[in-house]
Here is the input.
Amino acid sequence: MTSASTAQSANAPRVDSERTAGGGPADGGRVPSVVRARLATVEARLDRWSWLATGVVVLIAGILRFVGLSGPKGKIFDETYYAKDAYGLISRGVEWNYKDGGPSYVVHPPLGKWLIGLGEWAFGYQDAESHVSVPGHLMTTAPEFGWRFSAAVIGTLSVLLLVRIGRRLFRSTALGCAAGLLLALDGFHLVLSRTALLDIFLLFFVLAAFGALVLDRDARRRQWTRALDAGLDPTQPGRAGRPANGWRGWPWWRLVAAVLFAGACAVKWSGLYFLPAFVLLVFVWEAGVRRSAGVRRPWRDAFVGELPWLTLAGALMLGTYLATWSGWLLTDDGYYRLAANYPGAPLSDKPVIGPLINLFEYHKAAYGFHTHLDTGHKYQSWPWQWLLLGRPVAFYWSGDGPCGATNCAAEILLLGTPLLWWSFLPALVATAWLGLARRDWRAGAILLMVAAGLLPWFWFALDGRTMFSFYTAPALPFMVLAVVYVLGAIVSPTGARAGAARTGDAGYDRRLIGGVVAGAYVLLVALCFAYFYPIFVGEVIPYAEWSSRMWLGGRWI
Here is the structure.
């Protein structure tokens, strides 16, 4: 090789050097096969069979969540707060105390209660204590159905989301459906899906935002692949070495994720714990696609290129969050809304800016409530107990019959399906091990989301803050994904296809055995769920049968 050709080779774009080392373009385009493989995404074509399988899983989830939704009668656990607040929102625009005739002081944002209120608007609401009884606008049903309806819908939709996210992550319809089925058959998720609490809505928005970011990752990789096919030189500085930035090239899914993330924060502020994880995922994925494409300084380029988009996403988050407070901002009835109604409070009567100042003061007061929440509770628990099911929360209890025995019991216990939940810790360890061994971005993303959902609570535990097991809700889908990730490794270990090519039926046998093991695990989880089903839905059973399900004795009672 001449000195001129040597210099040319040294300065050539990375894609050209990989083309000679790793083979030419795989499909006639300019992108070499090595780079195209690194930029690969899940095939986007419509697969009617995958959607049929998805529909079956979602149908199972929907039946479990809607059948008998009206029972038990009356408000259970914290429904006594959220169902009332929800009706205040749809009738007056703010949470309202109908018994005392004044605004309610609440410490959670309104979006989850707005969603609960939609079910009350559609199917009716009743509160004997406040002497409020209104028919539904669509049909009149048992009032319990009205305030639990939205939770059941969102719970079912979260199963749908997890199936599709799992399929995209693992490139397998079977593994995606396994993830959705495991979530559908989890007692913790089922109870939250059948109760008018906020946590199922928080879970949904966090999961949906993550799904939108995964779609954004794929969209950006397709964009870079098209640009490279069109002759883009990624070593060029500035816009010359980057894909076209017209409106078609905007990171639309990332902006959707921003709106969905704001929705999570507008349900509960604990959604904020996921913000660092989402920002980190964006930068890591953007740097990764640039490195694969051949950009010389991928991390710096990702920071410079994506910071404006993240700034726009931040503005969208703030705007979306404020929009969920529109009922409070546009009426005069809300708590802390008018300074004249709260003498001595640091509020403002200034036009336009005054409501925002007062909303800020309201947030300060609510934050103070949360940070000083250390009152003991019978069902409080610590973060290190949650995955071990150390102290589940009893939502409902009755000793009334009939049940065919002298003593009866009916309980709704916020308890995860034990076999599934006791798999989480080993699955997380195995996911970490496999992710490091394989350098697999999927394992890192799953573990990062689990960490965002759980680790902050360990910090708050140092201050003795009162906490409950349902705080794990937004991390639950990602722990299920960790289990499925391990099942996928069992079914199709690294090198299984190559091994099959070298050893004939050996690789096939290994995958067959792995498939049987994974299928047996899902079946055992289903059987475990069926055994505990009566205490997930408040079914009246003999006391002895109820007692036999209290596996950890007093910790579950």
Summary: The two ends are 79 Å apart (CA to CA).
